[in-house]
Every structure is written in structure tokens, then in C-alpha cells.
Automatic annotation (TrEMBL):
Membrane disposition: Multi-pass membrane protein
UniProt xrefs under Gene3D superfamilies: 6.10.340.10, Histidine kinase-like ATPase, C-terminal domain (3.30.565.10)
A GO-annotated cellular component: plasma membrane
GO function terms (MF aspect): phosphorelay sensor kinase activity
Transmembrane feature ranges: 21-44, 301-319
CDD domains: HAMP
Keyword Metal-binding among UniProt keywords: no
Annotated protein name in UniProt: Two-component system sensor histidine kinase YesM
Main localization (coarse): membrane
Species in which this protein is naturally found: Paenibacillus methanolicus
All copies of domain HAMP, residue ranges: 322-374
Length: 602
């Protein structure tokens, strides 16, 4: 898995920077924002839809309560008539004259009073069979059309005494249809019955639905619309409406339909009044688009803003990446020139960003490389010059040697004769001179120990003591014996001792001291040669110190010191050169350090 991810990451290295930035903005910004927008929009739409559905269900529930309140009044009227003796006597008594019957009709005012008293009631009529001698608008004889109607037969069904709710025509109202209570009224005393029909006021029913925000209707069990927000729907069968086919058979709940060709929600609630064999249904319809239109508008606005932002971002990234690519190409051209060996170039890419910083660091690196190459070249030049001078010195020494064995033998003969004559001092001096000459002649390119180097310096000092006597010159050795076995290039200490005697004590008539010291400091051995002469003026001191670096300086008084300084640098590096310390009136001190063990640090 890790290797696959690594391989995929490596493949991105082959994509141009411009394309990488565009892909990055799409992957890191656009896609997440788009996904978040889609999720939030979907959540918002669903939330709005759920709220609308819940609100519709609440509204339908309120409609159900209002309808129940309206239906309660005709039920109460029918209950009273069920036990009303006046109605029983009126329907079942036999009147001698028509006048008596008309008078009885007129005296029975309950139907008319109820219609006037209760706005929910539009009309009340009572059907009898056998027929009455005379009918009016309140009491009617059931003709064949009435007897054959479903509602009439259901009302007379002996197996049920429940109330029925039907959408039926009223012949006393020009055959207009009404939602009506239909109930059989029994007269046990006379062993007869009749059918009571109470019409509900259509305007009252429609008024319940008029304030609803969505299309709402009430249907009976056969699917007839008995009330609706849109009055033109009243009287139609819901099965004739495309969006509501089979809806009359649905139980209470929320259903998905297509209304006017649009996805919609339909809320169905059943209303079954007390003592009723059947009931009504309240149906509310709303299109989803009408509910989520605001959410869709917000979504379109959001996606428009996202698209505009992405377009602007892509344009900005395109120009920014083009600018970055152009600067990188300029830097790449300079790199190509450097790769071909041309170090005399300079990157002109400016700015304080990462590319500008890289350009400046690249220029600084080139300057450092050129400086290092100049230093290496100068170091090689100085080394070659030093080697030429050393070869010249060796040639001069070889020219002056003239059979060194002859000189050693002659000096040894002189020493033996002086010793034989009892002059031990002369014998010792000649021995030191021979030893010094032999060591100087035998030295080549090989390293010697610090002990051997100090032995040469001691021989030189003792010869100078013989020359100037002990009152003018003495010397001291302050040695760290743990450093005596360290190997160093030959003739590093003796030239410093010679400089101290010849120049440092030049004006000292008596009491001159040369001190040679060695000590170990951390990983270095420090070697010092100091005298108690008059010292060197600061201006002269700085001039001498500067001359250590000048290979062209021909002053013979400085050749020895410069030779030591250059050999130390060539052998051990820049930090190991000769150091000069000349406090005014306090003598001169020359020092240098070498790595402990004599290992090269170059």
C-alpha cells in the first residue's frame, strides 16, 4: 500500500507546475466545497420538505377537528329525533282530513328551526314508506328512485343502525348534491321507520379549506369530492383526476404522486365521526418544487458563486503559475550554464519569495564557489612557489656542502684535539656545530618528532650562548613531555628561535632570555617561542604579520617566518598558521599549534 502511494506521488513529479496547481485547487477546494454544498443543499431541501410535510399534516389534523365539529351538530340532531315522540306521532298517526295533516306539519317546526339556528345545516328532510297522504319540503314519500339508491338501502339495512355519510342529490334543492347525514329513525311503538337526511352547508365545508396553503379536499368513501379549496373540484370523483387515481383506497399517511406533471406529496387523513358506519378523507396536495423553490434558488446561487470563484481561482492560478514557471525557467537557464562549467553567470530572478530567495542563495553559492576556486588556485600557486623556494634553498645548501663528510671529519678532528688539550668547552661547541650541521643537511621531506625538532633548537641556542656568553643570552625550556612524540614538519621551531636571537634580542646587551614552551590544549599541541627583547612597534608588527601571506615579499629577514607560516597552512590548514604577539616593551612571542598526533586537518 505504501509503495503504491509512493509511486502515485512520484508520478505527480512528471506533471507541470501549472497543471499541478490547477489540479490542487480543484481537488482541495472545488470538490470539497461542491460536496459540502451538495450535502448542505440536500439536507436543507429535505429539512424544508419535512417541515412542509409536517405542517401539512398539522393542517390536515386541524381540518379533521373542524370537520368533526361540523359533523357533530347533525349527529346530535339525529340523536334527538331518534327519541322524539312528536316526530313518531306525526309520521305514524292517521289524520282524518288533509287540513289536520297540514296543521301537524306546520306545528312540527324542529326541522326549520334547526336549519335557521345552525349554520352548518343547509336542509333536513325525512323519507317515509308507506307514503304519506301528502308531502311537503320536510316530509317526503320515498319514490322508486329513492328506494333504489344505495344510501337509502344502506340506511334501511336492519343489520346496522349506524349513521351513513353520503354525497347525494337533494330533490328539494334543484337536485344539487350535498354531503349528507343519512340515518334510519325507528319507531318501535308503531313498528315502522323512516330515513332522515341532513344536508351540510357547502359554504361552511369549503370555508374550512379556503385558508389552506395547498390544494386540499374532502372526499367520501366513494371518492366524490364533497369540499375543496378549489370550488370547481366539488362534485367530481377523485378517480377522474390523473394525480389521484386509486387515492380513495389509500389509508391515512403521506404518499408520493405526480401532480400536474410535477413530483408531489399527498397527505391523507381519515375522519370517522361517532356512530358512523363510514367516514370521510381529508387530502392535501403540494408539489415538492413549490416547497423547495427557495432552497433550489439558494443552491443555484451557491453553485453560481462556487463556479465563479473556481473560474477566478483557475485564472489566477494559471497566471500565477505561468509567472512562477517563467522565473523557474530563467533560473534553470542559469543552472544549465553552470552545469556546462560557466561559473561567471548570475541569476537575475528577483523577489522575496522562495524562488527569489533560492536565486539569491544560488548567486551566493556561485560567489562562494568562485572564491573557493580562487583560494585553491592561490593555495596551489603559493605551494608551488614555496616548493620552488625550498628547492632553491636545497640547491644552495648542496652547493655549499662540498663533501659534507669531509667537513664532519674535520670538525670531529678539531673537537678531539681540543678535548685532548683539555679544552672541553671548545670540544663541546664543535660537537654541537657538527650535530647541527648534520641534522640540517640530513633533513628532507619526512616528518620528525617534536623532541628532535627541539633538540635542533637547543643546539642552536647553545652555540649562540657560546658566541655571546651567558650574561647576554640564556634560554629556558618549558616542555609538556606528553607531546614530545608528536610528528611535525622539520625546521619549524629553529627559525623562530633564530628570529628571537637575531632580531628580538638584537639591542639587548645582557639578560636576554629565549623561552621555548610546549603544552597540550584539548586536541592541539601549542608551541611558543618568546624573548624579553624590546618588542616590535605595532605598525611594524602588523606589517610583519601581513607579510606572512605575501609570497612575493623578498625581505630576507621575513623569509624564515613566512616559510614557517606557509608550511603550517599547507600542512594543517588555515587555522594553524603562525601567530605573532608583540606587546610594546614586553618582547616578542611567536606561537603556532598543530593537531595532537600530527594528523593533517586539511
Amino acid at each position: 500500500m505504501g509503495s503504491m502511494i509512493l509511486a502515485a506521488v512520484r508520478k505527480t513529479n512528471n506533471i507541470r507546475l501549472k497543471n499541478k496547481m490547477v489540479i490542487s485547487i480543484v481537488a482541495v477546494v472545488f470538490i470539497p466545497v461542491l460536496l459540502v454544498g451538495l450535502i448542505l443543499t440536500a439536507s436543507y431541501r429535505q429539512n424544508v420538505l419535512d417541515q412542509a410535510t409536517q405542517q401539512t399534516m398539522n393542517n390536515v389534523d386541524k381540518i379533521k377537528k373542524h370537520i368533526t365539529d361540523i359533523l357533530r351538530m347533525p349527529i346530535e340532531i339525529s340523536n334527538k329525533l331518534q327519541v322524539d315522540d312528536r316526530l313518531s306521532n306525526l309520521v305514524n298517526d292517521r289524520y282524518e282530513t288533509t287540513f289536520d295533516l297540514v296543521t301537524a306539519y306546520w306545528d312540527f317546526r324542529y326541522f326549520r328551526d334547526s336549519v335557521q339556528l345552525y349554520k352548518e345545516i343547509d336542509n333536513i328532510r325525512f323519507y317515509t314508506d308507506p307514503p304519506l297522504p301528502i308531502s311537503n319540503w320536510d316530509f317526503l314519500s320515498a319514490d322508486e328512485s329513492v328506494k333504489n339508491s344505495n344510501w337509502y338501502r344502506e340506511a334501511l339495512d336492519k343489520s346496522s343502525s349506524f349513521i351513513g355519510w353520503h354525497y347525494i342529490k337533494d330533490e328539494t334543492k334543484e337536485n344539487r348534491a350535498y354531503l349528507s347525514l343519512v340515518r334510519r329513525i325507528d319507531f318501535p311503538l308503531y313498528r315502522s321507520n323512516g330515513v332522515l337526511v341532513i344536508n351540510l352547508d357547502q359554504d361552511e365545508l369549503n370555508g374550512i379549506l379556503s385558508q389552506e396553503p395547498f390544494d386540499t379536499m374532502i372526499i367520501d368513501e366513494k371518492g366524490f369530492i364533497v369540499a375543496a379549496k378549489q370550488p370547481q373540484w366539488v362534485g367530481r370523483n377523485i378517480e377522474s383526476m390523473d394525480f389521484a387515481k386509486d387515492l380513495s383506497d389509500r389509508r391515512a399517511g403521506v404518499y408520493d404522486f405526480h401532480y400536474e406533471g410535477k413530483p408531489s406529496k399527498i397527505v391523507v387523513e381519515e375522519v370517522v365521526p361517532p356512530f358512523s358506519r363510514n367516514g370521510l378523507k381529508v387530502i392535501s396536495v403540494f408539489t415538492i418544487d413549490s416547497i423547495v423553490s427557495d432552497a433550489n434558488r439558494v443552491s443555484r446561487l451557491g453553485f453560481t458563486i462556487i463556479a465563479a470563484s473556481l473560474s477566478i481561482a483557475i485564472v489566477l492560478i494559471y497566471f500565477t503559475s505561468s509567472f512562477l514557471s517563467r522565473r523557474l525557467l530563467l533560473l534553470n537557464k542559469v543552472l544549465n550554464k553552470v552545469s556546462m562549467g560557466n561559473l561567471n553567470v548570475k541569476s537575475d530572478v528577483d523577489g522575496n519569495d522562495e524562488i527569489g530567495t533560492l536565486s539569491r542563495q544560488f548567486n551566493h553559492m556561485l560567489a562562494s564557489i568562485r572564491s573557493l576556486m580562487d583560494e585553491v588556485s592561490e593555495s596551489h600557486r603559493q605551494k608551488n612557489l614555496l616548493e620552488l623556494r625550498q628547492r632553491d634553498i636545497k640547491l644552495k645548501m648542496m652547493a655549499s656542502q662540498m663533501n659534507p663528510h669531509f667537513l664532519f671529519n674535520a670538525l670531529e678532528s678539531i673537537r678531539m684535539k681540543a678535548f685532548a688539550k683539555g679544552d672541553a668547552e671548545i670540544s663541546n661547541v664543535v660537537h654541537l656545530l657538527g650535530k647541527l650541521m648534520r641534522r640540517s643537511i640530513e633533513i628532507g621531506d619526512r616528518k620528525i618528532t617534536l623532541r628532535e625538532e627541539l633538540d635542533i633548537a637547543r643546539c642552536y641556542l647553545e652555540l649562540q650562548q657560546f658566541r655571546f656568553d651567558d650574561e647576554r643570552l640564556t634560554y629556558e625550556l618549558h616542555l609538556d613531555h606528553s607531546a614530545m612524540s608528536v610528528e611535525i614538519p622539520p625546521l619549524l621551531v629553529q627559525p623562530l628561535v633564530e628570529n628571537a636571537v637575531v632580531h628580538g634580542l638584537e639591542d639587548v646587551e645582557e639578560g636576554g632570555i629565549v623561552i621555548i614552551g610546549t603544552r597540550v590544549e584539548s586536541d592541539r599541541v601549542v608551541i611558543t617561542v618568546e624573548d624579553n627583547g624590546c618588542g616590535i612597534p605595532e605598525g611594524k608588527w602588523r606589517e610583519i604579520e601581513h607579510s606572512f601571506q605575501d609570497m612575493e615579499d623578498a625581505d630576507e629577514h621575513r623569509i624564515g617566518l613566512r616559510n614557517v607560516h606557509q608550511r603550517l597552512i599547507l600542512t594543517y590548514g588555515e587555522g594553524f598558521g603562525l601567530k605573532l604577539d608583540c606587546p610594546p616593551g614586553s618582547g616578542t612571542r611567536l606561537s603556532f599549534s598543530i593537531p595532537l598526533g600530527g594528523k593533517l586537518h586539511v
